[in-house]
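Task: encode each sequence below as structure tokens.

Item 1
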Amino acid sequence: MTTTGHRAPELAGNLRLGELTARVRAADPDSRIEVLNSMTGHPLGEVPRCSPEDVVAAAARARAVQPAWAARPVEERAAVLLRFHDLVLRRQHEVLDLIQLENGKARRHAFEEIIDVCQVSRYYAHTAQDYLRPKRRQGAQPFLTRAWEVYHPKGVVGVISPWNYPLTLGISDSLPAIVAGNAVLTKPDQQTPYATLWAVRLLEEAGMPPGLVQVVTGSGAELGAPIIENSDFLMFTGSTAVGRTVAAQAGQQLIDCSMELGGKNALLVLDDAEVGKAVNGAIRACFSNTGQLCISMERMYVPTTLWDEFVARFAAATKSMKLSAALDYSADMGSLISRKQLDTVTEHVDDAVAKGASVLAGGRPRPDLGPFFYEPTVLSDVTEDMTVYAEETFGPVVSLYRVDSEDEAIERANNSPYGLNFSVWTSDPDRGHRVAARLQAGTVNVNDAYAAAWASVDAPMGGMKASGLGRRHGEHGILKYMEAQTIAIERLLPVGAPSGLDAGKYARIATAAMRVLRHLPGVK
């Protein structure tokens, strides 16, 4: 395995972190949270430790700005997203450094966040007007009743985002909410606050009213409840365990929520797959973002007919990966984010090995590269009594399982409480489509790891089973932030018996009319 001990500088460029943290308003300026450089474990900076009272004040500020923003034409709001798109591309070097330093990932994986944010910005800037336009609906009585569906912004959208994709998850879910006329109250993870703060600054430079997006920093356990209590909708990305708590709290407030939660994602290599392409795809599927990716693969099912060739080539490719803390595109994989994450990965692998699993590649931490580095790891002979078998590791660890048929692979892939993102590899796309349709996951990529489905922002993205509620992207990703209202106008005759008409006679006339309408197409 190629490695380098180059240590990342504390911060590159002219960006001043103090200018970003000044956007967070806390009553107690002396209460601070230390943010670490994940590459080195050394302090990177500090952000305010917000209190529940600070959340209430931030929500009030956002709510005060929202009505004037919602009153602006959607075209003006969309133009802000397009200008933001251009600024992100132009100033990407600033945030790429930030993402790497606060998260630890390799730059190639940080760049995926740039592309994602730009795609989401562009998509909703160009589609929001159509999605939000009043829609004519079929009235109760053809030609006599006219009905429309119209949309109103919910008000303040709460967003609680995790640390693994600090730019993408820190701002992309807010973009459709903003263009739809909402304000946003957002809490990035306290380990990775800077990318979100940077994005909010760029949105304001692009023309978004100051204060429309309020950022609070601090502990999710302390701030989660007041965020929910002061929001009209909640978007949450995180673990399934925390998601259950958040959903219960949202239910108490009678507000809707959308959640992307945990996964134990499966990759299926079919017996007609081209091994070289499947190996390359599997490397990306398992080890992008150091495996700290909700939609990465932790289980792989390989047919007996391809087992020896595939496993040998996959293990060799894994061993050849380059690990580095460099702030450039030279590394194949970077660091885990924290000691806690390193401990989880180590415990899962050590538990598996102690119970009889075989390590085909990796399997050990690399403190010579940085305090939280761990080698990309391939396991076989994993059994149900091992923690790694069913629990999400959220690190660069994948378990390989031999199967004798396509049906067995599908059955074993579906045998999980999770259903977020799966991957299928085959030389026959039609076969891949048929297999994908049998898999219980919100997204399935055929001959791709995860990007094909995620980047298809016109299509919904989310999880089945314990992997989430609701969807992001497409019409789902913007209309969930809206209140749908029906306006119906009655003309000439009322719905129901007209005044003076005998009720029995009306019933006979209505019955005859329903029999006629049964044979007519929908009439608006």
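Item 2
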Amino acid sequence: MATIIPSLTTVARMTRGERRFGRRLESLLEEDYLVWYDIPLGRRRRYPDFIILHPARGLLFLEVKDWKIETLRSITPDSVVIDTQEGRKTVSNPLAQARQCAFAAIDQLKRDPQLTQSDARYQGKLCFPYGHGVVLPNITRKQWDQVVPEAEQETLLPAQRVICKDEMQTTTDPEAFQQRLWDMFEYRFGEKLSVPQIDRIRWQLFPEVRIDAPTQDLFDDDASEEDASSEPLVPDIVRVMDLHQEQLARSMGDGHRVIHGVAGSGKTLILGYRCLHLARAISKPILVLCFYITLAARLRSFIAEKGLTETVKVHHFHEWCGLQLETYHVDTLPGNRPVWERQVESVIQAVDAARIPRAQYGAVMIDEGHDFEQAWLKLVVQMIDPDTNSLLLLYDDAQSIYQKSSLKFPLSSAGVQARGRTTILKLNYRNTREILSFAYDFARDFLEAQDADEDHIPLIAPEVAGVSGPKPAFRCFSSAHDEARYLVRCIQTWRDEGSELNSIAVVYTGNAQGRFFHEVLREAGIPNRCLQQSADKRRYDPHADEVVLLSRQSSKGLEFDTVLLCGLGALSNDEEQQFQEARLLYVGMTRARRRLLVTSCQANWYTRRLTELASA
């Protein structure tokens, strides 16, 4: 069965012919076929009805027309005259439409040397075939031949580029159906496309699935040839959303959506895609909320990479509450409680009293929602415009470090419509197999997977996506100075080997340690930034050429190629604190994409457990 993106069951606006043809593609093609429906291409946003990609066959662009033979009046190479309920209309020849979409995409793909041929005779040509064609789901081949004589078909709609009603029945032989598709190709050549090459095709055709790269279209239909030739080439290495992530992102639909995802499952990527999609569809601003200041700074950078800063507003929750009070001239309630608690209560009361308006945003998205309290969610849900009613709640209860706010309440009690709208992501794409196993084995006793209904939060055991790397290491030293000097040597070595400093994070267990490690790195001439003050956290720039030092709490939602999780010797042996500390260490460990080093200068319960794991 072919992979259809988005899932046909989630697409509401399809013609009957498109849906019938989509079902035939799903059932008559094998699992190595990829099919995209109604995905825009280029700055002019051309929408081919279907794009089909097969590793051995190539790339095919199709237009589907629900015309009936009795409504077809005339046809030329450029246009078709048809009778509709609104009267007689002249529309583009669908073959010309398919051809334009195909050529725009092919011209773009040719700019990637890894998708072109190296043979001197065909240099610059794609290394895989491509084609285009038309589907007429309400016209049989016999009817078509009677209306358009065979002698004229070659210039109007060549027979080999058309699939008719009787060639796409439920009883159609799969091989005959596939042969109809591949007869639309003029050439057949090339080796089977590799997985990286398929990812490069997706990277170029669908900029919204890119990871760590601008998503602005590379198709510039209005640019001059000079402008186009000066455009930078595609990077040597590209990263895109996994196909499952892309299908989920494109199949999300409207209303409230809830995603339970383990650490590293791509929740933030899906959030970014959702922002792109909704920014084009709704007029009111989009609000993205999280709990931690550093994560908000990273999300702002992420949204800026998508080119959405004017439309999408990113804040950590308490910052947003402060802005609401300031914007609507509401005073903070007096009292002895911390100011941020009083700000939240002030906003809740002001909304109830209609001093702060509801429905301010066309959509609200909450990242790391497991840290939100029931009253906070109830407040935020009221900020959604009921005309769009768009909410995306993302969370992983295994990363909840505050028991009081780990979403133990029914989501419906906070106004979240979760039933029938939930998705679970178990695959971890961030960490290597070795890092995830190490982190999960360490915290296993505190992360037991649980089942829950759709209105409650399940705790999900992660599953690794299959990437392998170096085994995590644990080192215990006789003093904090020895521990710090070891960090310096490691970072210097990795930098000499070509690692970017901003790909390295030092995650500490206490603020005093963070300041100490910061000074040691500074004295060693290693550029670094310690994120302890709120202002520093807000200014966090993930692209700056410096090592970042941050607490385990502040590391939530972030990721780095290399993580040094340090200072475990300062942790207490108090059993009552183990639940929270073990989860915090799990969070710190799972920030590492490729390399994890854990260090301590004093033995305790945590170091004994890590010693056992490291020696296993």
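Check on item 2: Residues 217-231 have pLDDT under 50 and may be disordered. Residues 480-496 form the longest helix (17 residues).
End of task.
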